[in-house]
Design goal:
Elements (H helix, E strand, L loop, with lengths): L2 E2 L8 E8 L3 H12 L4 E4 L7 H5 L4 E2 L4 H5 L6 H11 L6 H22 L4 E2 L13 E3 L5 H15 L2 E3 L3 E7 L5 E7 L5 E11 L8 H7 L7 E2 L8 H8 L4 E2 L4 E8 L9 H4 L3 E4 L16 H5 L5 E7 H8 L3 H8 L4 E3 L2 H7 L6 H15 L20 E13 L2 E2 L6 E3 L5 E7 L19 H23 L6
Parallel strand pairs: 1-8, 2-3, 2-10, 3-7, 10-20, 11-17
Antiparallel strand pairs: 4-6, 5-6, 8-9, 9-10, 12-18, 13-17, 14-15, 15-17, 16-17, 19-20
Helix pairs in contact: 1-6, 1-15, 4-5, 5-15
Length: 473
């Protein structure tokens, strides 16, 4: 990406804090800066802010929130850090995990109470690496709603969100201090905006095939179910300024992307008793062991295809809280059968295969023993009952988890640990707490990192701007 150190233009405008990217990270950063009384502007490349936030479930994992306490959930930073370290098999940066644990709850509470972004703890998503219920969702339970709530909050706070404003270059001096940015506007118009501090909230690099081939070669040819604009711009700008990166091989995968409809099949269907089979009618994995890493065993099956099997009762219950389930219904992705034999026929699965797998599950449920993969089908889930349902799925890449090395306030760091003069990063542009592999991703950590690092970056940049009467150039 373009870093320009000579021929610095006369900037037409100046704003203390410039934020690139209008997803959850960027919008939260802007709110945090405004709360400090400092002007911030958000630059968004697209005509309509969308991106990974809108494509997500809209869930944010957070620790020690008001909603958790209201529901009698006793969580702690120590429990959260232990969950992260267990999920990543000790690979995550423990200090960063602790910082996120400490600040995620206050950030969610602040968004809810101060900025009208209602986020309540959810009990449909339990386990999957979290030892306490800590996923928080907006009322409509979609990422699109979360994005809208944050945009509305920014409008109320007086934050300008400039759309169709693609940042095409960053201006910097020889000490790597960012001086401003070049913006490409519709109709070929070019504008130059100076800043005291720059926050990179551009998400990851899932849409950059060259970077994928370099850092995650196993997924370079896989289906990408993310925003095509996630090309790693922020990461590349940071590196060009001398920043270090970490865990570039980490990513969040999806193992239940409806094929060919490209709608995510809600995981609660399996949490509540559903299961996966391949096109030969065999179960092949522990469906709840790793929601992100599920893409790996699914893609390893014949044709890279599997079926999510559940029943009509689960479907009806899921319709109440899942927009994805409603979409699956609307587009006709759900196959149905009044018996196992009928479902096998409609899914073109071997005769008797589903009935056999279900019989094994019920035998294990009665005995209290785990299956051959270590999954328990206990009394918390009920037996599947006719009519039965299934959705054809494949595995995919959702978004990357590696990124720029940051400190406790989201300042971007060099390899030797020194901070760049005035650069911050959050969300997918910064390293996460998922370790180096797909199996290290905890549900809702992506948006947790986005809003928590966004709040930290926005507040720290605003404080630094307020404390500096002049900014050296």
């Amino acid at each position: 990406m373009t870093i320009i150190r000579s021929s610095i233009p006369d900037f037409e405008f100046s704003v203390p804090v410039v934020i690139v990217g209008a997803g959850a990270c960027g919008l939260t950063a802007a709110l945090a800066a405004r709360d400090q009384g400092v002007e911030a502007i958000v630059l968004e490349r697209d005509k309509r802010p969308w991106g990974s936030t809108s494509m997500s479930l809209g869930a944010i994992c957070a620790v020690n929130t008001h909603s958790q306490r209201e529901n009698g959930i006793q969580d702690s930073v120590e429990i959260f850090v232990a969950d992260v370290m267990a999920k990543t098999e000790g690979e995550a940066d423990e200090a960063l995990a602790r910082r996120i644990g400490e600040r995620s709850g206050p950030t969610v509470d602040w968004l809810s109470s101060t900025h009208g972004v209602p986020l309540k703890v959810d009990f449909k998503w339990t386990g999957l690496g979290h030892s306490k219920p800590r996923l928080h969702l907006p009322p409509g339970r979609t990422g699109e709603e979360l994005e809208s709530l944050l945009l509305n909050a920014c409008a109320r706070a007086g934050v300008e969100v400039m759309t169709e404003a693609e940042v095409t270059a960053v201006y910097a001096n020889n000490e790597d201090r960012v001086l401003g940015v070049r913006i490409q506007r519709p109709g070929g118009v070019v504008e130059h905006l100076s800043c005291d501090y720059l926050i990179l909230a551009t998400c990851g690099y899932g849409g950059n095939r060259e970077m994928l081939a370099r850092h995650i070669p196993d997924m370079a040819g896989a289906r990408y179910f993310g925003h095509e604009g996630n090309r790693g711009d922020g990461i590349l700008w940071g590196q060009a300024l001398g920043a270090a990166v970490r865990e570039m091989s980490a990513y969040q995968g999806l193992g239940t992307l409806a094929e060919p409809q490209q709608i995510v099949v809600p995981h609660p269907l399996m949490i509540e008793g559903g299961f996966l089979v391949n096109i030969e009618g065999y179960r092949f994995t522990h469906e709840l062991a790793n929601i992100s890493g599920m893409c790996v065993p699914v893609l390893a099956q014949p044709q890279g295809i599997a079926w999510v099997v559940f029943d009509e009762n689960q479907h009806i219950a899921c319709l109440e809280h899942s927009n994805d389930q409603r979409q699956l219904q609307e587009v006709g992705a759900i196959r149905r059968g009044d018996s196992w034999d009928a479902l096998e026929r409609t899914c073109n699965l071997p005769a008797g295969s589903l009935a056999k797998e279900n019989a094994v599950i019920e035998m294990l449920r009665a005995s209290g023993k785990p299956d051959r993969f270590g999954r328990h089908f206990d009394q918390r889930t009920r037996p599947l009952q006719a009519p039965f349902c299934a959705v054809r799925v494949t595995g995919a890449l959702f978004h990357t988890q590696g990124g720029l090395l940051i400190d406790e306030n989201a300042r971007v760091l060099r390899e030797d640990g020194r901070a760049l003069p005035n650069l911050y990063a959050g969300g997918g542009a910064a390293r996460s707490i998922s370790g180096s592999r797909v199996t290290g991703y905890l549900p809702a950590v992506g948006l947790c990192m986005a809003v928590t690092l966004g709040a930290l970056a926005g507040a720290d940049a605003a404080r630094s701007s307020s404390n500096s009467a002049t900014t050296p150039r």
